[in-house]
Structure formats: structure tokens, C-alpha cells
Amino acid sequence: MRLINRFCLTLAIGLTSMGAKAQSLRDLNEIMFRQMQTQRGVSSAEISRIRTIFSRSSYIGQGNPAVTRHPMTPAQAAARLSGSPASTYRNARFEQICGAPYMAPLYDPATQRPEDATACVDMFEYPNIPMVYPVVWVKASEAAALCAAEGKRIGDAHEWEGASAGALLPPDYQFGLGQAGMRGWHNARYASTRNQFSIGQWRTGVCAAASHKTGGCNGGSFTGCGSNTYPAGAFPNCVSPLGVYDLDGNAAEHMNLPLAANQMASTGSDILGVTEMKGSWFIWDSVRAHEHWSRWRAPFWHGTRVLSNASHSNYHLGFRCFKSL
User: Residue 183 in 3-state DSSP?
Assistant: First the structure.
């Protein structure tokens, strides 16, 4: 009965896009906060900190409910699984290593075991719960604060790349080249992996990438563009070799690109570098809106310092958290 009640709470979000009584962004956020407590064990003190961060914004959430039309409900997504969401995605070995549900250890399988990991990553985009829509309209500075509210952190670019490619490699930031030069050097170094994604070679229909932009989406406004995402984990085969889901499709993701050795989140820095946008998003099967592959580093799109109050947000940009062990 407890599992049924939890899933009914999840289902409440999906009903909005299927014609049920409209719920406000605040109402949907409160449902999500309860899901975080019941399904991930987030404490009341952590939820209080998270709620405070959300309260400072009129936009953070799972999309503007007035225009968002999700292509799949949580119930429809759950029906695609061979078991319950929890039985499908919870991993006892990973939980022992990471100390939390729905996290995966980051390591290099060529030389390490999962137990050798010094960091873990959320399996799903925030709020990191299967069958729940990802949070978008979040600034990089807010993403960093939300992760910190749970004792986690934003990830460095090389960590996301390792999670996607299936092997966490040592940091390779060539700080002396400057921002553009450092990105170009990295992309040239990994050019041979250009067509490699978290799922290997790209195949349509494998990831949450068959949705569509809202008709009349006018340059990315909150009132004109729906966050037409899928429930996290709705595509169980959209998983990287390290067990991380939805790195391709659904929401793109904020990341930290350090410009100096003292700006690396993975070494405990609270200074941080500049914004790096990772991954593809929910229209990717039909519209290749920009280049993307597992180890690719994007241009400085809408770039700021990660901790800037002016850091970018939009209708298809979310994040996931990382955790140092």
C-alpha cells in the first residue's frame, strides 16, 4: 500500500498534462518536495533549505504548467518498465558505495572497481527520482545551491563526460590556453569519439528525445515555451555504461567548467568556474539543435560564472548533482 500511495503522488503531476484541474507551479513543486522525502529520504531540514531556494524564483520547477504538455505521464512511463520504478532502478551495491539511493559511482572500469570511486552522480536529472519530470528554468547558481542543500555539489565537465562515455578519466583542463582554447584542445583530443553517446551510437527512440517544442515557442520565454519533457527513467535503455540515465534527451544540464585549478568542484572548491551546458534535450530525435557527444565541450553559450546571479536558465535546461566520497 505504501508503494501504491507513493506512485499515486507521482501520478498527480502527470495528470496536469492530461486535462486534470490545472495546478500552479508552486503546487507542483510542493508535490515534488514530498516525493523527494518519501522516495529519496531527503530530510525535512534539507527540504526547508531547498524550498527557500525555490521561493526566490518565479520560474524554477518542471516547466510552466500553462504551456507545458508532457508527451508521457508517469503512469505511462512506469508501464514501460518490467517491474516497479524502485525495483528497476535502485541498486544496493551503488547505494552502499554512494550512501544514497539513485546515485552511481564514477570510476574507470579499465583500472578500477565501483568501490574505488571517489565521487558519485545522480542517476537522473534533479530531483533525481524515476517517473518524475526534471526541474528546469534553473540558473547554474541555483543548481549549485540546490545540490549543496543536500550535501552534494555541481559536477565538473570531465565528470559528466566520464559518466556519459563510461569511464571517468583524469581532469584534462589546459588552463593556460584560456577558455576557448581549452575547449578546442579538448574537443580535438577526443575527436575520434565524436559519434559516441551515452548509449553508444545514436539510435532514435532509445532516449527521451522524441518530444516537440511548443508551437510558437518564441525564443525561449517562460510564457511561450513549454518544458515538454518525459518522466525521468521513462526510457530504461537510455543508460550509460556506468548506470547513469537520461544523459541524452530530456533536459540539457548545467555543469562547472573550471578555468583554474582552484575552481574545480571535484576538489572541494567553493569558487567554481564558468557554465558548461551538457547533453542533448527532448527534441533531439528530430531536431539536432547543436552538436553533442559524450566528451564534447560546448561553446560558451549564454555563459557566465557558475555562481553569478545572472547565470542562464531556460525551458529545457536542468541539472543533476554529484557527490564527493
Answer: helix
Rounded alpha-carbon distances, angstroms, from residue 10 to 7, 15, 324: 5, 9, 29
pLDDT digits (tens, 9 = 90+) for 190-210: 999 999 999 999 999 999 999
The sheet carrying 274-278 orders its strands as 274-278, 252-257, 317-318
CB 210 within 8 A of CB 204: yes
Q: Determine contact, residues 11/21, Cβ cutoff 8 Å.
A: no
Structural domain of 154: 2-324
Report whether 317 contacts 138 (CB < 8 A). yes
Residue 322: strand pairing partners: 121, 153
Stated pTM of the model: 0.93
Cα(122)–Cα(159) distance, integer angstroms: 12
Contacts 24+ apart (CB under 8 A), 210-216: 210/71, 210/282, 210/285, 210/286, 211/70, 211/71, 211/282, 211/283, 212/71, 212/283, 212/286, 213/283, 213/287, 214/67, 214/68, 214/69
Q: Strand pairing of 322-324 and 119-122? A: antiparallel
Q: What is the pLDDT of residues 156-171, one digit of tens each?
A: 999 999 999 999 999 9
How many structural domains are present in the chain? 1
What are 106-127's pLDDT values in tens digits?
999 999 999 999 999 999 999 9
